[in-house]
Amino acid sequence: MIELKNLSFSYDDKTKILNGISLKIGADDHKVIGFMGHNGAGKSTFFLNLVGELKPTDGEILIDGKPVVYSKKGLRQLRRKIGIVFQNSDQQIFYSIVKDDVAFALHNLKLPPAEINRRVEKVLSELDILPLKDRPIQYLSGGQKKRVAIAGIMVIGSEWILLDEPTSGLDPDGRARMKKLIQKLVDNGQHIILSSHDMDFMYETCDYFYLLGKGKILEQGNKQEVFNNEQLLKENKLDQPWLVKIHQKLGLPLYDNEQELFANDGQHN
Ligand SMILES: Nc1ncnc2c1ncn2[C@@H]1O[C@H](COP(=O)(O)OP(=O)(O)OP(=O)(O)O)[C@@H](O)[C@H]1O
C-alpha cells in the first residue's frame, strides 16, 4: 500500500502544487487507479513524488508502512516497488540499443547475465517488440519507443507501475494495445496508477479514480461516484466519457462494465 501523510510539494517555496494530501492507495485492492485533473493540476508532480524523483516539501510517503528513505539505497529499494513510465518516452532512454536499454535496471540490480537476457526477451516478446531488440531506439516510432520504456519497467516486476499519459501520441491500434497491456500487467498481479486526459480510456481502464485540483484531492471514488458529477468535471475542465453521456441520456444507471450492462438488460425497458 502507498500511504501519503499530509503531502505537500512546491517547486519554488511559494506555490503549493500539492497541498496537504493524505491518501491510502491500494488499501482496497483496486487494480487500476486513475488520477485526473486539468493541465497543470499537478498529476506529473504527484507521480514524481511517488517515485522519489521529487522529495515532498512537507509530509511523507510510506510504502507498505515504511517511510521512503531518500538515500541512494532507499531510492533503489523504492524503484523495485514502484516504476514509472513517463509521458515522454525519450526521458527514460539510457542506452541506444533496445535490449541494452531494457536491461539497464536489471544490471543495476546485479542479476546474472543469463537471467537478464531471459527476462528481457520475455518482456520484449510479450510487448510484440522482440524483432526490434537490436535496433537503435532513436529510429523507432513514438509508439514503439513507449513500448520500450514500458519494457524497461516491466522487467523489474515492481508491484506498482505508474503510467503518465500512456495513450499520448498513440494511434487507435496503439491505444487498444495499451489497454490490453494494462490488463496483462493486472493479470500478473501488478497494480497500475495512471493519469490521462483521455477520459474514455480512463473510464474503460480504471476501477477507481482520484480527481486532483487546487493542490488537493477534490473527489475520489468508483465510476458512478466520479463521472456522474458533471458539474465537478466541468469545473476541472474534464469531459464526461461518451459512455456516461449515453447512460445519462437513456436514463440508465452507470454500469461498471459490459457484463453488468447485459446482465441487467431488459430491466429498463
Ligand atoms: N520543474 C518545474 N519547475 C517549476 N514548476 C513546474 C515544474 N514542473 C511543473 N511545474 C509547474 O507545476 C504545476 C503542475 O505541473 P504538472 O506537470 O505536475 O501538472 P500536470 O497535471 O501533470 O499537467 P499536464 O496535464 O499538462 O501534464 C504547473 O503549474 C507547472 O507549471
Helix content: 25-40%
Rg from alpha-carbon coordinates = 19 Å
Topology, number of strands? 10
| Content-based structural category | alpha/beta
- Low-pLDDT residue intervals, each spanning 5 or more residues: none
CATH class of the largest domain: Alpha Beta
CATH superfamily of the largest domain: P-loop containing nucleotide triphosphate hydrolases
Number of helices: 11
Under CATH, the topology of the largest domain can be stated as Rossmann fold
Query: Domains counted in the coordinates: how many?
Result: 2
- Any idea what the CATH architecture of the largest domain is? 3-Layer(aba) Sandwich
GO cellular component, one term: ATP-binding cassette (ABC) transporter complex
Pfam family, one: ABC_tran
Membrane topology: Peripheral membrane protein
Main location: membrane
Describe the structure.
The chain has 269 residues and is α/β, with parallel strands linked by helices. It has two domains: 27-56 and 66-228, Rossmann fold (3-Layer(aba) Sandwich); 239-268, no CATH class. The chain has helices at 43-50, 72-81, 98-108, 113-126, 142-154, 172-187, 199-205, 223-227, 230-235, 242-250, 258-263, and strands at residues 2-9, 18-25, 32-36, 58-63, 66-67, 82-85, 160-164, 191-195, 208-213, 216-221. Helix 3 (98-108) runs parallel beside helix 5 (142-154). Residues 11, 17, 37, 39-45 line the site of adenosine-5'-triphosphate. Adenosine-5'-triphosphate (ATP) is lined by residues 11, 17, 37, 39-45.
Secondary structure layout plus pairing:
Layout: E1 2-9, E2 18-25, E3 32-36, H1 43-50, E4 58-63, E5 66-67, H2 72-81, E6 82-85, H3 98-108, H4 113-126, H5 142-154, E7 160-164, H6 172-187, E8 191-195, H7 199-205, E9 208-213, E10 216-221, H8 223-227, H9 230-235, H10 242-250, H11 258-263
Parallel strand pairs: 3-8, 3-9, 6-7, 7-8
Antiparallel strand pairs: 1-2, 1-4, 4-5, 9-10
Helix pairs in contact: 3-4, 3-5
The structure holds adenosine-5'-triphosphate.
